Amino acid sequence: MTRILLVGHGRMGTLVEQLAPEYDCEVGALVTSAQGSKGIADLTEVIDVAIDFTAPSAVAANLRALAARGINVAIGTTGWLDDEPALRAVAGRYGIGVMAASNFSIGLHVFRAAVARAAGRFAAQQDVGAWIHEAHHSAKKDAPSGTALTLKQAMEDAGYGRAIDVSSTRAGSIPGTHTVGFDGRSETVTLTHTVRDRAVFARGALEVARWLVGRRGWFTMDDYMKELR
Ligand code: NAD
Known about the structure:
Helix content: 25-40%
Radius of gyration: 18 Å
Mean pLDDT: 96
Number of strands: 10
Bound molecules: nicotinamide-adenine-dinucleotide
Shape: elongated
Strand content: 15-25%
Structural class: alpha/beta
């Protein structure tokens, strides 16, 4: 049984808590915004790994507190990329394991590989323009989504060097849709990944958290996906 420290008890944290038993995990302790990173410093429970689903502004302090306690963490929170270099250094100094993933859906990572493949194929066709559109519920704070930025990077890494138009919609309860389009003179290719249920992220977080127990270093979903093959 893996003992999880749940940092953040909002929509995602609540789902992780509900689904934990299906993944042979139990929530050993919970830190809410009322406690903040002090709640991590004051922990008395034995914890195997933490899952952070909080807010962009909370991630840096949480990670510092977790590192000081030697607790590995799967960070699902998005919108804190500017802090990443500093936080990598903190994690390295304390020798903890960190999985930072803007999207814990396994299907999304398969989708990203398909998008990169297509971008590489279209790279040399100068008349083809590309775009990314993402749509999420109105409560999502960051825009564009971390996943949209990751998709853009994957397209560029695959050799697509022209501008990629990125746009966002925030409305209603949309769990998360990403569409990548390639538009030529007489044809359009669109690839879409749609989340029907936010539980997919909680399930991925639990799987990844179990994988992270006992590891040291800074990991991405690519590291996890490689081992799934
Ligand atoms: P939410 O607003 O429902 O919940 C966030 C919770 O964190 C709130 O209850 C808030 O009070 C709490 N919180 C804020 N600061 C805190 C702190 N310092 N310590 C403890 N708790 C704190 O949001 P959500 O829908 O659960 O999403 C949370 C984050 O996860 C967002 O950044 C969102 O973009 C991201 N997200 C990532 C994935 C993924 O797959 N990686 C999937 C969905 C959402």
